[in-house]
Write a structure and sequence with these properties.
About 55% of the residues lie in helices and about 10% in strands. It has helices at about 15-25, 35-40, 60-70, 85-95, 105-140, 145-155, 160-165, 170-185, 190-200, and strands spanning about 5-10, 30-35, 50-55, 75-80, 100. It has a five-stranded parallel sheet, sandwiched between helices. β3 (about 50-55), α3 and β4 (about 75-80) form a beta-alpha-beta unit.
């Protein structure tokens, strides 16, 4: 089961937090409970997984995932709701949720999800951490530097980039050099890797 796993439970209902905590303890997990996302963000966890009650429609999944990313919290996110339908689950997964649980929580289902989380959470956390770091670096680029990078990714030469952006090849070289410094890479391949890592939000976290 989820033995040894640290769970960060976000739920506004104290009774539900208590019941869930007992279940997780029976499964060998340590639980930290938070009344809302803001409380968790004020005390950012650095290991384990996050299980959050989803009271709003599927779009809310993106809101919490982005808030965690902005706070540089790369932990896997599992959502739980009384309403589990295809639209909500698909929306949550597309936003980067690791899994989805139905409320009230049932021990066999929870045990299976936690077993999977225990197996995969480490790699998922590392992937998310790489994505957050890539986004932080990409955010330093100017709009023009982003345009240059996106054209370089297609395989365009400096001359082709210059022609497409109506600037001189020398200006392209300057943008390219500045881009490399900001991204902290030594070659275009490194910049391309960061570009795709930064866009990896749709991958399961």
């Amino acid at each position: 089961m989820g033995r040894g796993l640290e769970i960060h439970l976000v739920d506004s209902e104290s009774g539900r937090r208590t019941d869930a905590g007992r279940m997780f303890a029976a499964l060998g997990c340590h639980t930290e409970a938070y009344a809302d996302l803001g409380e968790l963000l004020r005390h950012p966890p650095r290991e384990g997984i996050i299980i959050a009650h989803q009271a709003a429609p599927a779009e809310w999944a993106g809101t919490i995932r982005y808030a965690l990313d902005d706070a540089r919290i790369p932990l896997p996110l599992i959502l739980a709701s009384e309403t589990v339908d295809t639209r909500r689950v698909v929306g949550a997964m597309a936003a980067g949720a690791f899994d989805y649980l139905a409320l009230p929580l049932e021990k066999p289902e929870v045990a299976a999800v936690l077993e999977r989380a225990l197996e995969l959470a480490g790699e998922a956390t590392r992937e998310r951490r790489r994505m957050i770091e890539a986004r932080m670096r990409m955010s330093a680029l100017s709009a023009r530097e982003r345009e240059v990078l996106e054209l370089l990714i297609t395989g365009a030469s400096n001359k082709v980039v210059a022609r497409m952006l109506a600037i001189s090849p020398r200006t392209v070289e300057i943008h390219r050099a500045n881009m490399m410094v900001k991204l902290r890479v030594n070659h275009v391949a490194g910049a391309v890797r960061l570009h795709f890592e930064a866009r990896a939000a749709g991958r399961r976290s």
